[in-house]
TrEMBL record:
Alphabetized Gene3D superfamilies for the sequence: 3.10.310.30
Name under which the protein is recorded: Oligoribonuclease NrnB or cAMP/cGMP phosphodiesterase, DHH superfamily
SUPFAM superfamilies, sorted: DHH phosphoesterases
Chain residue ranges for the region called Disordered: 363-384
Alphabetized PANTHER family for the sequence: 3',5'-CYCLIC-NUCLEOTIDE PHOSPHODIESTERASE (PTHR42146), OLIGORIBONUCLEASE NRNB (PTHR42146:SF1)
Amino acid sequence: MTVTQITHHDLDGYGASTIVGRFVPVSRIIHVPRYSDVGPVVEVELKRLGRTRKPETLILTDLGLEPVAVTFIRNFATMNRGRAVEERHRLIVLDHHASSIDRLREQNLEPVAEADDPSVSRFDLDDPAITVLIDEGRCATKLAYHRRALYASDATEGDADLLALVEAVDAVDLWRKDRPTFAGGHALDEVFWDNVSNLVPIGHAWHDRFVSDLLVALAGRLREGASPAELEAGVGGIRTAIVNRYLADDATDDPRLTTRMRLARVLARSDLFQPLSDGTYLSFGLDSGTFQRVSDLIMDAGKAKRVLNVQRTGNMSFRSNDETALEGARKFRGGGHKDAAGGKLPTGSAFSLADAIAQVEPILNPPAPDPSSSPFAALKGWKG
């Protein structure tokens, strides 16, 4: 069964996706940085699943349910009731925010304590294919591990490094300074934020694999007794070892370069950048350093003369090699140099690559006016 996971963009969210990915193949992982983005994301998924006849599994982790997310859960249940039993999708919601219980109650969903674990609140949607669990005593990473039988019926125990990751994330996410795993978890969190977007960005096929491999390797060092300082000092070597594995069969790789330089060559050959109708290549949510390096490689290869990166906040960065960057930025209230300029989306934000394209295309490349819509079109051929 196809599995999609929507999870928070933080250490716990990535920890949860790392756990789920160890026990079941996940086709897509969608990371949501802001809870305000959850509504548009789940709305897209609901529409997609409504058109999909083959049953799928959707797993939501660490999202901190807001009213729009609760409405989605209710709408998911309504959609499922209208489908044949053998075509019904599965929905698994694993969260640990106390506010989520409040939001569910506001929409007349009352919690029922689990018989074997009273700290866990289960919400009944009158559909065995839907599981909604809120556990305030465990982070989403630990909850995903403890409840792995929900999405992987044949799941076994995790290895020692995976368990070390669970405990480290649980300690820092719940801010349990009294635990011996807290300092290591805190260091893990720092390394996570330093590496989550600047090397293999969201949208590339290696992104989640890279972050998960890094987190598990770091947890392994913690398990072996590494101090936070030793963990920080060893990050470069761990990253290099991971990238060496990924590029072992790449004849174009040059190990003498930095990790970022080596990966930039791979990213320039990927589908992170999508062409617009005028040939401009657009990317979404790239780290500024990564965008600079990869866009330069794309233009040097002759794929495009102008490239554009749109951030979730709506900030836009244009680069070109034909002095058209500023021309593009001016259409978005921006300015800068002829080959390096910036602007801002009129709406102020974007939540995905598709959303960014939908907002940019009609402004950057407005359609030609239809002559038939002119107020003078009706006068054509009139003889007064």
